[in-house]
Write a structure and sequence with these properties.
The chain is built from ten helices and eleven strands. It is α+β, with helices and mostly antiparallel strands. The strands form two sheets. Strands 1, 2, 3, 4, 7, 8, 9, 10 and 11 form a nine-stranded mixed beta sheet that branches. The protein has a two-stranded antiparallel sheet with strand order 5-6. β7 and β8 form a beta hairpin. About 11% of the residues have low confidence.
Length: 233
């Protein structure tokens, strides 16, 4: 891939996917103007009972518990582990479960591993990391009482989070119903337009790892992997 082609590809990704600025002091996106002027709550949240602490550093933790996520994605971001370990504000990682990573088809794994796709892989991985704040489930579930309820349900205090890759929406998970009809909120949380559900959360060092049942990055990013032709596929 020539320099010009790589530059054009990276520019296209940035234009298509950069729905929000890179990480700032505020890792949250308010769902309403009223919530935006409400008193800010510090990112350093107390760990809830559902979030057991892991003693090791983040790189060691991911290598032991989510090896494919570490190898295929997160380790592709330059200096990511040293940056997270030294973060004074903490960090948040949305980590696809091992079954999700294992079920990536062979073509995708080759594309992700190909050094010619490093920019795209970096972008994919970046959507799974908040480098400037430890955002717990407790914080994500906090309700906003400054706006009217809808069908008797209070809105969430935040409408999204700003990751290293861009903005991701935050919502309540639903279950039951038929073909999407009649489903009811079940107390869980979903991240991104693909509504990847948070399965469990673990505090690691100065941050937190949320295991999710899917990729949180936009589907559009996968199209850029397809521009690289792989012999045999």
């Amino acid at each position: 891939m020539t320099y010009t082609r790589k530059a054009n590809l990276f520019a296209a990704i940035a234009f298509a996917l950069a729905v929000a600025p890179h990480a700032t002091v505020d890792a949250f996106v308010s769902p309403s103007p009223k919530a935006a002027i409400a008193q800010r709550i510090t990112l350093q949240e107390s760990t809830s009972p559902e979030e057991p602490a892991a003693p090791e550093g983040i790189q060691s933790y991911l290598q032991q518990n989510y090896p494919l996520f570490d190898t295929l994605l997160l380790s592709k971001i330059p200096s990511i582990y040293s940056s997270l370990d030294s973060s004074t504000d903490g960090y948040t990682i949305f980590c696809p479960s091992n079954s999700i990573m294992e079920n990536i088809d062979s073509k995708r794994k080759v594309q992700i591993s190909d050094p010619r796709n490093d920019e795209v892989t970096d972008k994919l991985a970046s959507y799974h990391v908040i480098a400037n704040g430890k955002v717990t489930q407790e914080r994500l579930k906090r309700e906003d009482w400054t706006v009217p309820r809808v069908d008797g349900v209070a809105a969430l205090n935040i409408g999204g989070v700003v990751t290293m890759g861009g903005e991701l929406r935050v919502g309540r998970s639903k279950s039951g119903g038929f073909m999407g009809w009649g489903a009811k909120e079940d107390g869980g949380l979903v991240i991104g337009n693909n509504e990847a559900r948070i399965v469990k959360s673990t505090s690691v060092g100065n941050g937190i790892v949320h295991e999710v049942d899917g990729f949180v990055a936009p589907d559009l990013i996968w199209r850029y992997f397809d521009q690289l032709r792989i012999p045999g596929f």
